[in-house]
């Protein structure tokens, strides 16, 4: 039988922690759990608000008011917070963002795959200006308009904590890319920027290229699945000759041809920081690849090169193979889905994906 002091202690604990109510996805029954912030058993407290490896996901039946009170208290062990796909109203998101202004433990925030109103973006901008621990922010597939991008860009100019921004599939177009580029000229903490599938064309790419002349902290830039073309790619390639920050650049699926590829080749002869370059899913042919091969004979820093799904044939394959007899730094090469039928010997140290068309040697 429990002593009165033990019972009182348990009652006190229960009265000071949030009660999270959830609806089971399989039985539709309502379950209630009392969460003790000090108790490590809280990690599996319900089925709808999933907490995986310290990441808290707001589910369709989460009590937002109690959740926000809990988050504002900076519960130990929780480092990530996100909304499940399409879950929560704008008011719910704004409440969580207000709680994060006081939170000192969450470093990862995901509000993706939902339309974000200007009101939500205003709240997010305020949080970014106040919060001092958020490092990673994902806002993919949020259908963010130009006015909202202006708010975020202004927040990025002042923010000194965010290191990763995933802003994929928002169709920000050239106007949005220009606003973010302006922020990059001021921001000196962001190291990773993902802008895949945003309908960015040559003008937007040129704006980002200009920003890279001033920015020395960005190490990863993902512009895949846009339409920057040879003009936009050439502008970025020219910056690589002097930029000493970027280590990863993905411009796959961007309607690139041999012209811009030759500019990248020239840049690779001088660049000493780029480790990964993805030029896959473009229209690069043998002429462009031959230039890349010549650059590989000189470059000693690139370790990963993506060239899959281009228009490379046997002539280009032979040029790459010859370059690899000299180059010893490249360790990953993807030539899959081209039309290479025969080429020289691939060095044994190289991890290479060559596809079915590549002859075994």
What structural keywords apply?
single chain; 361 residues; 11 helices; disordered N terminus; disordered C terminus
Structure described in brief:
The chain is of the alpha/beta class and 361 residues long.
Describe the structure.
The chain is built from eleven helices and 15 strands. Mean pLDDT is 82; it is low at 1-53 and 355-361. With 361 residues, it is of the alpha/beta class. Helices cover 36% and strands 14% of the residues. The longest helix is centred in the middle third of the chain and has 13 residues, at 118-130. The strands form two sheets. The protein has a 13-stranded mixed beta sheet with strand order 3-4-5-6-7-8-9-10-11-12-13-14-15, with no helix packed on it. The chain has a two-stranded antiparallel sheet with strand order 1-2. The protein starts with a helix and ends in an 8-residue tail after the last strand. β4 (55-58), α2 (64-72) and β5 form a beta-alpha-beta unit.
Catalogue the unreliable spans.
1-53, 355-361
Helix percent band: 25-40%
Query: What overall form do the CA principal axes indicate?
Result: elongated
**Strand order across the biggest sheet?**
3-4-5-6-7-8-9-10-11-12-13-14-15
Compute the separation of the termini in Å: 78 Å
Pairing-aware structural class of the strands and helices?
A: alpha/beta
The number of helical segments is 11
Order of helices and strands: HEEEEHEHEHEHEHEHEHEHEHEHEE
Tell me the major beta sheet: 13 strands, mixed
Rg over C-alpha atoms, rounded to the nearest angstrom: 25 Å
Mean pLDDT: 82
């Amino acid at each position: 039988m429990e002593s009165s002091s033990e019972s009182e202690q348990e009652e006190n604990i229960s009265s000071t922690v949030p009660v999270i109510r959830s609806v089971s996805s399989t039985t539709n029954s309502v379950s209630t759990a009392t969460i003790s912030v000090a108790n490590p058993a809280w990690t599996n407290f319900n089925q709808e608000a999933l907490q995986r490896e310290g990441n808290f996901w707001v589910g369709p039946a989460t009590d937002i008011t109690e959740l926000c009170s809990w988050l504002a208290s900076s519960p130990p062990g929780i480092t990530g917070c996100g909304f499940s796909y399409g879950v929560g109203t704008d008011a719910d998101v704004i409440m969580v963002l207000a709680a994060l202004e006081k939170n000192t433990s969450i470093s990862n925030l995901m509000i993706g795959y939902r339309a974000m109103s200007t009101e939500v973006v205003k709240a997010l901008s305020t949080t970014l200006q106040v919060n001092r621990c958020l490092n990673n922010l994902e806002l993919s597939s949020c259908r963010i308009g130009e006015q909202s991008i202006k708010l975020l860009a202004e927040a990025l100019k002042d923010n000194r904590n965010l290191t990763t921004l995933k802003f994929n599939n928002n169709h920000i177009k050239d106007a949005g890319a220009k606003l973010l580029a302006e922020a990059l000229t001021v921001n000196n903490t962001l190291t990773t920027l993902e802008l895949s599938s945003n309908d960015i064309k040559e003008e937007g790419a040129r704006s980002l290229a200009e920003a890279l002349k001033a920015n020395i902290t960005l190490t990863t830039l993902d512009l895949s699945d846009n339409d920057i073309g040879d003009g936009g790619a050439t502008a970025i390639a020219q910056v690589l000759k002097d930029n000493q920050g970027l280590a990863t650049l993905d411009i796959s699926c961007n309607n690139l041809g041999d012209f811009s590829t030759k500019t990248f080749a020239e840049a690779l002869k001088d660049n000493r920081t780029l480790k990964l370059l993805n030029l896959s899913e473009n229209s690069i042919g043998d002429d462009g690849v031959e230039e890349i091969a010549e650059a590989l004979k000189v470059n000693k820093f690139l370790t990963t090169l993506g060239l899959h799904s281009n228009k490379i044939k046997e002539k280009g394959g032979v040029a790459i193979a010859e370059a690899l007899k000299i180059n010893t730094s490249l360790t990953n090469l993807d030539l899959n889905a081209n039309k290479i039928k025969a080429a020289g010997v691939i060095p044994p140290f190289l991890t290479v994906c060559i596809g079915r068309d590549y002859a075994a040697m």
